[in-house]
Amino acid sequence: MAVLESGLKIKDYIEDDVEDLAKYGLEDPAMHLIIKDKENQLELFLGDAVDDETIYAKTGDSNTVFTLNKSDMEFMDIKTMDFIERFALIINIEHVDSVVAELEGKSYDLSIKRRTAKNEEGEEELIETFFLNGEEKPESPFRKAYQALISMMVDMHQENTVQGDPVLRISYKLNRGDQREELVELYPHDKDFYVLSHNGEKESEFLVGVNRVETLKGHLDKLEEAQLDEE
Q: What is the pLDDT of residues 85-130, one digit of tens each?
């Protein structure tokens, strides 16, 4: 029985290089976990249940599908849903056409244009071009800025009512799924935290640290300064 870096044991290997992840519930996974310690990090996607005891899964760097025993998740000594909810919002970049972050009076409009073209072998491949406020940008700083947007973590569970104007507003336009728009907003709370609101909800259960917004702004400013000839 194979063991992942995190200590999770793979029950069975199902299929390598899967093209149709949807049949295992992994095209739009039910859960996305990032498990890390001082030395290793594992990105894990959980899909449909095989039965009451087993679930389909894959890692972030492979399209090999395998199964895990649900009971083995208990080694983390946390509830899986409690863990995943520490992220303000997670959306796969392949599902996004554009995302707009409004912060400190500035608007950062990140967009992706996708097209297919034939390579030298005559096979079709996907070509992506990345833009900030209509200006083409290098791929690496674009993806880093996007990762900063989706990896913002919730720091505290506390019930609050949203008040005032948002300090940060992030709106997503998606290219699949029933809901094609998502909205995350952060509202003033105190000198250390902001109140998190999802899709306009006025009642919130989560606080986000001020330092996380400062980190995000740093990535967005680096993207704004980046030039195509730097990669």
A: 455 676 777 788 889 999 999 999 999 999 998 888 888 888 999 9
From residue 210, how far is each of 144, 155, 195 by CA, in Å?
19, 10, 10
Rounded CA-CA distance 140/151 in Å is: 16
The amino acid present at 35, given as its one-letter code, is I
Alpha-carbon gap, residue 56 to 58, rounded angstroms = 7
Please, which residues bridge with residue 99 across strands?
110, 172
Tell me the pLDDT tens digit for each residue of 132-181. Answer: 999 999 999 998 898 888 767 777 778 899 999 999 999 999 888 788 89
Residue (of 136, 147, 48, 55) closest to 92 by Cα position: 147
Angle in degrees, 0-180, between the axes of helices 139-150 and 210-225, rounded to the nearest 10: 160
Q: Give the Cα separation of 101 and 163 in Å (integer).
A: 20
- Count of helix runs (H) and strand runs (E) in the chain: 3, 14
> Of 74, 89, 136, whose CA–CA distance to 109 is shortest?
136
Token pair 């049949």 in the structure block, residue = 23
Which of these, 91, 106, 93, lies nearest to 32 by C-alpha position?
Answer: 91
Taking alpha carbons only, the member of 34, 37, 123, 112 closest to residue 80 is 34
Which residues sit opposite 156 in a β-bridge?
Answer: 207
Q: Is 192 helix (H, G, I), strand (E, B) or coil?
A: coil
Domain residue ranges in the chain = 10-84, 93-230
What do you get for the CA distance between the two ends of the chain, in Å?
A: 42
Q: Residue 8 carries which DSSP code?
A: P
DSSP secondary structure code for residue 153 in this structure: B
